[in-house]
């Protein structure tokens, strides 16, 4: 085998090794994408649930009597705070 043929064979072997590594990296990236999608879906579900809770609190406030609305205000404040914190966590996670 000539020096040239030996060199070509060596580079082809290294290329094969790198191609294998590239495929492993692609698989890992696909797994990460799946994990990110699951986490994103979970966070969006949490945000929607908290938003619905706040809307329910606001509906209750709207129909409450003048005497009762102050008591319900705490629930709305808590729901607002929960939603705001969940949005902030999502923002930080994806920034």
Automatic annotation (TrEMBL):
InterPro entries: Uncharacterised_RAQPRD. The keyword Coiled coil applies. Residues 8-64 form a coiled coil. Keywords: Coiled coil. This is Coiled coil domain-containing protein.
């Amino acid at each position: 085998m000539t020096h040239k043929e030996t060199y070509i064979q060596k580079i082809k072997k290294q290329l094969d090794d790198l191609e294998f590594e590239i495929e492993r990296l692609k698989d890992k990236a696909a797994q990460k994408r799946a994990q990110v999608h699951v986490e994103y879906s979970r966070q969006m579900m949490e945000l929607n649930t908290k938003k619905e809770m706040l809307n329910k609190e606001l509906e209750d406030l709207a129909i409450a009597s003048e005497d009762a609305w102050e008591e319900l205000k705490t629930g709305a404040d808590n729901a607002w705070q929960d939603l705001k914190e969940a949005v902030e966590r999502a923002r930080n996670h994806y920034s």
